[in-house]
Amino acid sequence: QLGLVESGGGLVQPGGSLRLSCEASGGPFGVYVLGWFRQVPGKEREGVSCIGSQSNYIDYADSVKGRFTISRDNAKNTAYLQMNTMKPEDTAVYYCAAGYRRAGRTGACLSFSNISYNYWGQGTQVTVSS
Q1: Would you give the DSSP letter of residue 110?
Q2: Strand 115-120 with 78-83, pairing
Q3: What is the pLDDT of residues 94-103, one digit of tens each?
Q4: What is the dihedral angle through the alpha carbons of 52, 71, 123, 59, rounded to the nearest 10 degrees?
Q5: Which of 11, 27, 53, 103 is the most exposed place for a label (fewest CB within 10 A)?
Q6: Which residues contact 56 (CB under 8 A, 6 or more apart)?
Q7: Alpha helices by DSSP H, the chain
Q8: Could you read off the pLDDT of 20-57 as tens digits, one per residue?
Q9: How far apart are CA 55 and CA 18, in angstroms?
Q10: Helix (H, G, I), strand (E, B) or coil at 48
Q11: Which of 93, 107, 74, 114 is nearest to 36 (CA)?
Q12: Rounded to an integer, what distance in angstroms lies between the CA atom of residue 94 and that of residue 86?
């Protein structure tokens, strides 16, 4: 059973930066697709970014392209989300998730139709406010 723990959330001013980390334990981290998602109370969970098991592909939501950067270090069982030029609308609880690509699916890794995200962290709050 893969365990995921997010860290690095907090309060940041608009235009500022944060770096989230997702540390995995209890499983072979390097075989999983890793995704970052976020959720605001009362709204659906939104895909932010995802990365292939060997960093062989990366995808971003349009709302964060050019501002956020996803990366992973399989030797450290850790994934990262560097968030720059942050906006108030980035305020949310951020979750990391790990999973496998569904058989025969080759599409974008933020789609639950393509990736079965079976393991989720507990989330970390990110607040962008002056």
Answers
A1: T
A2: unpaired
A3: 999 999 999 9
A4: -50
A5: 103
A6: none
A7: none
A8: 999 999 989 999 999 999 999 999 999 999 999 999 99
A9: 21
A10: strand
A11: 93
A12: 14
